[in-house]
Amino acid sequence: MLVQQQQRQMPMTPVPSNARKVIENFSYALTDAIGKGFSSIVYRGRNDETNEIVAIKVIDKKGLKTPLHYQLLRSEVEALSQLNSNNIMRLYKVYYTENNTYLITEYCDSGDLGSLLTKQGAQKESQLQRLFQGIIQGYKQMKQKGIVHRDLKPANILLKGLIPKIADFGFATTPQTIATMPNVNVGSPLYMSPQAFKNRYSEKSDIWALGVSLFELLFGQVPWQAGSERELAQRMATVPVNFPGHISDECRDFIQRCLAVDENRRATVEELERHVWLQRQELQVIKGNGFQGVFRGSYGGQQNHIQFHNIQSNGCVNTTSPLGEAHNKQQMLMQPRESTYGKENTSSMARQQQGCIQQQPLKSIKRVQESRKESQVNQSMNQEYSSQRDEEWNENKKNDYIIVAQMNFCRYLYRVAALIDKYRFVTTQYLREKLLFLVNKNIMVKMNNLKEVIDGHNALNLDKFQEYIQNPQFSRLSSAINQYNQKYTLQFNTVWLCLQNPEQKQLLIVDKKFDAIFDDNFTEYESFYIILNSILRSAIKEIEYQLEQKITFQDTQQLLPTDIEGGVILLDYLITYFQLASLIQECFDDHYGFAVDSKIEQIADGKPVRLTFGHYIEIRNKIKQLDI
Asked: Can you give the residue ranges of the Protein kinase domain (predicted)?
């Protein structure tokens, strides 16, 4: 998290209402206000270097009339600058001028939960279960940093697509400020715990607020109402929670654990994270790149063509290799986890047309959400696959299996690209750009083969091809391929255009091996994977070296610090990609062999886990075993 503080004079001349105010490389229009506080206005702004949309909170120093107001502002900045979670609004930079303080933060495009409740009314339990999985993850990092929010409520939980973001830390306390901050009464009374009414704040007061918020989102009203704060506090302490509508027993218990009057009996955030309501398997956490677990091939639980990994309690998988016993013979010790990218809106084509500046990071790649129609096709296909028995395995199903494996490989690479784009652990000049290009080109190479099949060319060596393409199932697969191809083409074009800056391009092609495949020709050659693995090897070594400098080994069961966990995740994904690329070379024309030996459907549908120091040790051992 980069927090930059600068002193600089702003122009004193009047500014026209339609002009853009400029703060370094950020700007906003005075007509683009999206929120207002007691001494601040929030504007929709942009980063003029990257065209990324941001939120700019302008705090008028004239409104800070007491030392307490200044202390609250300092605490807000201190809190946000320590946090880096996908479920907390990110702070990019802070600027101080003579008259104002500017907080440049992440822009959340879908409003907040309070507005959602006002517009749509009470929400479905299943949707809230997904949202609260994210909220709990965000709050868990806050607790790790010793931060207490003190004003949690639906209006202070923003939405970026479908991802919840805890925001508005104006009343937050941190370990640096809590000792000097006067223990004044802050927050919104309807969401305050009985202890907060007595000016006692802690994690448990925030947990209470989350319970009230969940209750309100479910039923459209808060648990207790009264004519005064004093009466409200009394009712909270004496009147049991009454549920005015039907919810599951698990959800009811979750709320009651949050709203225990006795703080010692109230749940901790870790207990909520493990609560059965958030662990129900049919309701998966909203994370990752938006894929709906498509094309999961269970085949009725048979071990004929697909073997599933057994997930251990520590998040590791069993000793069966996803790449098969005959290839690499290495254990895949980590279950791939979903990227936290992928729920943002599509960026404008105008932004894509702008060239990249030499030696500047690539712009963030905006992910495209899966369409409802595509999801329905996927679900229908899953049901058909799951009904197959061994004796029903025929040429058509074998061909389907080959095609689906190719699509799952593209899904996995899409997630790899998101991780490369998010975690900046590859710092060697242009190595990251090369890697990001090759991943996206690899997707397009595979999609080109699939498009060839749709066009009537047997690019995947399918059995009884002419008969197969007349099958109704093939028509459904073709529709899904076209939808994926549209999304992946948009992403490739974004990266390709970014690398066409003449000066930058000239430096990229100094690497003659890379230059040999630096084009938009999507014909598949074995040489592509040889060069790819060379670059993957360099990236893996660099990330491993960087992590070695940062990690001080602890107990193997201890969770990795969040600021380096991303690097470990990226490292694990790149190692798996290295293995998959090696497997493609081994069975270059045997697409069925790749589908069987790679176990790619399991890798593509990996579930998120928190990583420990033990996991990192296992990943390093894997690097040694593979001789990368």
From this structure: 28-278
